[in-house]
Structures are given as C-alpha cells and as structure tokens.
Amino acid sequence: MQIITDETKKEIKAHGSHTFPLLVSYEKITAYDSGSFLWHWHPEIEMTLITSGEMLYRINHQEYHVKKGDALFCNANALHAGTMYHEQDCTYISVTFDSRLLSGFEGSLIHRKYVKPLVNDLSLSSFCFNGSAPWHSAITAAIQHIALYDEEKADAYELAILMELYTILETLHLHMHPARKLSTSDMLNYDRIRTILLYVENNYNRELTLHDIAGQIHVCKNECCRIFKSYMHQSLFEFILEFRIEKSIGFLMNGSYSVSEISQLSGFNDSNYFSRAFKKQKGCSPLQYRKKMKAQG
C-alpha cells in the first residue's frame, strides 16, 4: 500500500465529507510498502497520536523520532513522510480535518484571529508533543477524545468533536510559537523542493541528471544540491535512490516481473546495482523481500 497522490504530490483521499470534513483513521506503518509512506501533502491539518511502537516522521525540514504517547501537529500543505524505526511496527491515530470547520465562515473573527494565522504560517509547519511540557497532555487527550467520539457516534458527537478541535486550536495559539520567522528565501525554497519532488515522481523511471533537475528550479547544480540537502536532510541522489527503491516494491509485489525488468521500470540501468542498493536499504535481496512479503500474506 502507498498513499495515492496527484501530479503535485497532493493526497487524493477524501478526509471526511463535504459537510463535515474530518477523518479519523487508525494506521500502522507496516501496512505501507516496505514500512514507509512517501512524501505527500494535503490542504487539511493533521494531528497524529502514536498508540504503540516507534517511527520516524518527517515534516518539511524536521525529522521526529516519535514513540507511544507522542503526538504530532502537521500543518496544512506541509510535506510529510514516515518510516518504521529499527523494523518495529508502529500504530497511530490520525485526525485530519479542514481548518474551515473551525472558522465558521471566512472572514469571521475566529478565522482572522486564530485559524488563518496558523495555517498560513509556514514557520509553524509541525510540532511534536512529547510530554516535555505540561500543556502537551491537552493535545493528546483531545485526539483521544475525538477518536472515541467518532467511533461511538453518539447523539451530537460532531459537536463534541468540534469542542475538542477548539481545545486544540486554543492550546496551539497559547503555546506554540515559531522558532524563527520564515524568510522569503525559505518560502521560495519550499516551492523549489515541491517542484523537485514532482519532477522525480514523474521521471524516476528514466535517467535523471542533476542538470535537468536544477533546470526545473532555475538554479545551478551546486545550488540545487545545497537547497535540497539543507531542507530535506539528505542528498538529492540519496532521495532519488530511496524513492526508486520504494517504487520498485510495487513492481516486485506484482509477481510477474523479473528483477531485471523491475530495475528498468524503477529507473535503474544496472540490475546488479539495483539488487545491491535494494539489499542495503531493505536488508535483503529483492527476491527475498518478495518471498517474505508473500509469506506474511
């Protein structure tokens, strides 16, 4: 399984209904291909509560090692990805909602004073609530209550959920402040990162050159590498290699392709190099991985 996105890496899945745009989902990292979900974004805010295990969760330029009891705030439109930690499973609750649920109507006092400043502040793309401050418990409790109300669906449960969302909004407003003001350069570079991710998504199965990628964001090759590593905490070609390996999983689990065919479909010119890279990243050969996954059902 992988998260389905459109050509801009925006997640396609609906998060709730048009009349009540909120979705509570129960996830586990091992349900995703090779225990990780790829970079994507959506216009909704996402709150995540870890219920067991550990995982690595990346939001824009931040990486969080989260454990049972930790919660995460992922702001609207922030790029995010996750992967298992030391091959452990991790279960978590995600509450994804459209911020307009809180606004009442656009232009309202709530929208102008609390909602709009939050979702438009790119310097507040994420936050981890790990119990290091007493107020963190208000966030984790609110997520738990929302999940419970959504599951039970008692009379007026939507109102109960809204009350918890307002608790989250109030807590974020009172306690969560940007570490630094995002510069014009930062905002430009986030747009550049999105462009690079989109280009890799659309072209991973053919030869990718640094010259071509840098040309997509209109900078020189050295600057392209610097920007990507500065914001993504890995080199551009480490990311491309990782991305191609993740994409190869789908072809591998199809069962009808040889390793040589999969390597070509995934953008590798050399099947031996593909097998070595796969083993380094996944700890086993492609065929061993296929056998292991099929044995697990």
From TrEMBL:
What protein name is recorded for this chain? AraC family transcriptional regulator
Instruction: Report the PROSITE patterns cross-referenced here.
Output: HTH_ARAC_FAMILY_1, HTH_ARAC_FAMILY_2
Origin: domain of life: Bacteria
Segments forming domain HTH araC/xylS-type: 194-292
Q: What SUPFAM superfamilies does the record point to? A: Homeodomain-like, Regulatory protein AraC
- GO MF term set: DNA-binding transcription factor activity; sequence-specific DNA binding
Q: Could you tell me the keywords of this UniProt record? A: DNA-binding, Transcription, Transcription regulation
Supply the PANTHER family for this chain.
Answer: ARAC-FAMILY TRANSCRIPTIONAL REGULATOR (PTHR43280), HTH-TYPE TRANSCRIPTIONAL REGULATOR EXSA (PTHR43280:SF2)
Task: Read off the InterPro entries from this record.
Answer: AraC-bd, Homeodomain-like_sf, HTH-like, HTH_AraC, HTH_AraC-typ_CS, RmlC-like_jellyroll, Tscrpt_reg_AraC-type_HTH
